[in-house]
Amino acid sequence: MSGPLDGIRIVDLSVAITGPLAAGMLVDQGADCVKVEQAPTGDVVRWLGSTVAGISAMFQAANRGKRSIVLDLRQADGLAILRDLVADADVLVQNFRPGVAERLGVAYEDIRSIRPDIVYADLTGFGTSGPYSHRRVYDTVIQAQSGLAASQTGLNDDQPKFLKQLVCDKVTAYTACQAITAALFARSRGAGGQHMELSMLDACIAFLFVDGADHEVILDGDHSGPQSVAANNTPLALDGGFAAVAVPTDKEFHGLARAMGVDSSDPGLATIRDRTTNREKAMAVHRAVRQNATRLTVSEAEALLEANQVPFGIVRAVDEIQNDPQVIANGVFSEFDHPAAGRVRHHRPPTRFHGTPTELREPAAPTLGQHSDEILAETGRSDRIDELRAAGVVG
């Protein structure tokens, strides 16, 4: 066995990040996945960002270990091939705009007629109905509409800010992955297959409202502070770098003061309740901490913060992460030679399953249509490959 989802078969009709990453995480946990792509360019993410031979960094991360077939679902033969793939599948993932799956003949009712116990993941931007459901959606659209971009502002800062990553795509992918697994678990307990609907908007509102919308959750509370307890987090400037510190408890607050050589013995600062009552005294300590920190090198600050048991992290550049001692100890990264893209560094599946260990059967993401012939043969069409390719049904 290779992973807890060994034996689970997925058909992935999705593009970009949300659907492919959701399916990709299931592959990381042992599932087999056929990725159905459209000619002539396939999944658009193949060509975004750092790309070699149609394998981008994002495509590699979201699609490693899948098999790719190029199918024209608008042709009867293409749809017939897909139906044969679905007949043996446990999960289908798609992120078409509402109405497209119906026009193509791959909506839930179509798929259920072939595989009654299918787990059908229907991923959209805004939802399957409503005033925005017809709109085209990308990550920044949902960052804006969900409140996430506005939540990045602070005091004297009224311009919304986008996170410089596709956070809404990834949040939705993680949510979808967990939901698919839950649906498979329910099926294993006799509930049968089911149609799952998940919009990026809903996933990202749920993500934000855990800790970023205090006033909109506790409606009768004190709304004089920010919406999020993390709103005022700023890096601690050091001589030659930065650190992040978090000191919500009494022990941590006073430990930070000691580490930075600041007196916090005033009884009005003893407990979190005292500091809440005496905000100006508490802020004076934080200002002194920041002033003293600038005199310390990164290594000096790291030693003092660790000695005083202050939760902290040194701010690392992205290109420094693979050399961080803890990352090395965790065995996060490995490198391999991709047959098309060349040298690739990638992260291992983050969860270690000790009972059902995961092992990537194939570390490389597929080239466009790499497995078309192989998959066609599995559907009993090995004698028709040339005919289907000539007709543009497969690529």
List keywords for this structure.
single chain, 395 residues, alpha/beta, formyl-coa transferase, domain 3, 6-stranded parallel β-sheet, 3-stranded antiparallel β-sheet, 37% helix
Task: Summarize it.
This protein is an alpha/beta fold. The chain has helices at 18-28, 57-63, 76-87, 100-104, 108-112, 139-145, 167-191, 200-209, 214-217, 250-259, 272-277, 279-293, 298-307, 325-330, 372-378, 385-390, and strands at 9-12, 32-37, 51-52, 55-56, 67-70, 91-94, 119-124, 194-199, 236-238, 241-245, 312-314, 333-338, 342-347. The strands form 4 sheets. The protein has a 6-stranded parallel β-sheet, with helices on both faces.
Overview of this protein structure:
The chain is of the alpha/beta class and 395 residues long. The chain has two domains: 9-208 and 329-390, Rossmann fold (3-Layer(aba) Sandwich), CATH 3.40.50.10540; 236-314, formyl-coa transferase, domain 3 (2-Layer Sandwich), CATH 3.30.1540. It has helices spanning 18-28, 57-63, 76-87, 100-104, 108-112, 139-145, 167-191, 200-209, 214-217, 250-259, 272-277, 279-293, 298-307, 325-330, 372-378, 385-390, and strands at 9-12, 32-37, 51-52, 55-56, 67-70, 91-94, 119-124, 194-199, 236-238, 241-245, 312-314, 333-338, 342-347. Strands 5-2-1-6-7-8 form a six-stranded parallel sheet, sandwiched between helices. Strand 9 and strand 10 form a beta hairpin. The longest helix has 25 residues, at 167-191. It is elongated.
